[in-house]
Each structure stands twice: as C-alpha cells, then as structure tokens.
Amino acid sequence: MLDSLKILYTRDQIAEQVRRLGSEINRDYAGREILLVCVLKGSFLFFADLVRTLTCPVVVDFVRLASYGCETISSGVVEMRKDLEFSVTDRDVVIVEDIVDTGYTLQTLYHRLLDRKPRSLKICTLLDKRVDRRVDIEADYIGLALDDGFVVGYGLDYQEKYRELPDLYVLEDAPPVDEERPI
Known about the structure:
Blueprint: E1 5-9, H1 11-28, E2 34-40, H2 44-53, E3 58-66, E4 79-82, E5 92-100, H3 104-114, E6 120-128, E7 141-145, E8 151-152, E9 168-171
Parallel strand pairs: 2-3, 2-5, 5-6, 6-7
Antiparallel strand pairs: 1-9, 3-4, 8-9
Helix pairs in contact: 1-2
C-alpha cells in the first residue's frame, strides 16, 4: 500500500524542525524544570526525539484521550483514557502533540490541565493543520504546516498502520474524517 503514500516531509526535514523546536523550548525555559506531557499514541516518536534535544531539566508524563470509540467519526465526547501521574500545579507544562487540526481534543486537554493551576501551560505540535481548525486553540511551538491531507508516518497512523515509517506521508486514498484521528 506504499504506492498510495505521497511523501510530505522527509526524516531530515522532520529532524531539523525537532531541533529548532527544542532550541526554542530550551531558550524559553533555560534553568527551569518543565513537565512535558506526551499525547499518546501519535506523538510518541516526536516526543522522544524532542526530549533528546532539551538541555533544561525535564519530567515526562503521558496522557491518552479518545473521542471515537470504534467509529471513524468523532462522538464529540473526549474521554481521558490515561491521565497524568504527576501534578501540574505550580509547574511549567508543555503539551506535546503530533498534529493539531480541528483542535477539539487538544482544547479539552488544555482546559483540563489549566483547571489544575500550572504556573504556565504551552502547546508544542509537530504539525499544524489550520484549514480544519474549528475551535480557538493555537500551538505556541509549531514544527511544520500542513494545508490538507491525511498524514501518516513518524508515529501517526491510519487504522494503527504506518506509525513505523520514518518520514511523513499523505495517505492519498484515506476516507475523510470528521475530527482528529483516534489517539
């Protein structure tokens, strides 16, 4: 099925953006500890590469959200399947996301964490797909822009396939989806 994949960003282009994002975060949090929150599953490769670029003290934690259940169309209800193990209260927190498109899931997570009173709360995303944005949420750190298309590779999947690909591809024959992919 690789013939239905069109390369969007190479592993070298991705690595360059990850290094740039790491430099920005290092600059903004120099000498301060940050809690990095990985949004599973799609962000895990980006998250691991990003963590390795950081020179400031880092604590890592993970969340997993779902709004699909077994369907391909969002139920509209965001369910927390795995919550944080560490408190965010009075901490500098950066949410690390693979892609921001409609923004529904990220907005829900952002406000849940904001209610827990962090010192600061920012968002870092590898891909920013503004064309599909339906809510008022913006990332503070943006790796790459995406105009349109369903992206797989580098941790992102379609029906749990393609996560292992080292580059990012547009899946040309993917059916349209109503919301962010199941995570």
